[in-house]
């Protein structure tokens, strides 16, 4: 047999072995909710695991006993709730030279916080730290009298003044436009921060995922450094729901869940486009890394696993129908089938935990088969 054929067979065998090794089994009823509760509470956030294996889930429930950052043991049993803001839409737990911390985007307050694992806030990046060009960008429109939901755009720009009688915008061409506040006229926009992550050098990356999809870079001390992305070329992002620092590569990359375009892409740490990872997805919403693998929460009804070569190696919990709603009640949940995956993480053993956009709150787990 020729060396060429032997080499080909070796590659095929290795590929088959790798594929066989990446398989998972669903763990029914893994999470034990807080005492006296049937579910964990209104979920529209993230899930992460610390270096000891504890599980953290953000919950935005109106019940103060549930709202904040819930902490569970490796066995899925409830431990406590950290009294952090309920609108932690996206957060990560990272261990750097200064220790292990929670970095979170507070959607309801448009700020970023850095916390100890006990919930003590040690640093904050306030709204005022973001550049005005993105922070104060608004669209002024007028509602139709017959149909208030129907709006006509008047102008978009950076809001530089807002009095009782008029709004003043700085337009893209540098000119100013004054708009009278007549009946039905209003401004909407500004920051809508959805996630953050930390580069190996300590720089903090923050995405305006529910706003205009700009990505901001701050120093480890919280000082603004740069901004990239947004709705225009070259990246042309739309609902860049969450971003993550992909340390599978050297140098590390920024991985963007560009949900509005149903794709994932990589940039370098300066924001220069590297390439698309995947397209035509079920709206990628979050991701996590373990070894050479990446797991992805696709909010329209799927969890996927990818290798470092951007090959899909597994799909988990796939819903037969395209889903994307928080309104599926517990009695309609099906074991091992997702509804609206919103947050996801690997644990320290390579198992996958996923949290859903769901009014009642839902966490699913798949164990990796050894």
UniProtKB/TrEMBL annotation:
SUPFAM superfamilies, per this entry? NHL repeat
Q: Does the keyword Signal apply?
A: yes
For this protein, the record's InterPro entries field holds: 6-blade_b-propeller_TolB-like, TRIM-NHL_E3_ligases
GO MF, one example: zinc ion binding
Could you tell me the keywords of this UniProt record? Answer: Signal
The answer to whether the entry has keyword Cytoplasm is: no
Q: Tell me the leader sequence span.
A: 1-20
Name of the molecule in the record: 6-bladed beta-propeller
**Originating organism:** Prosthecobacter vanneervenii
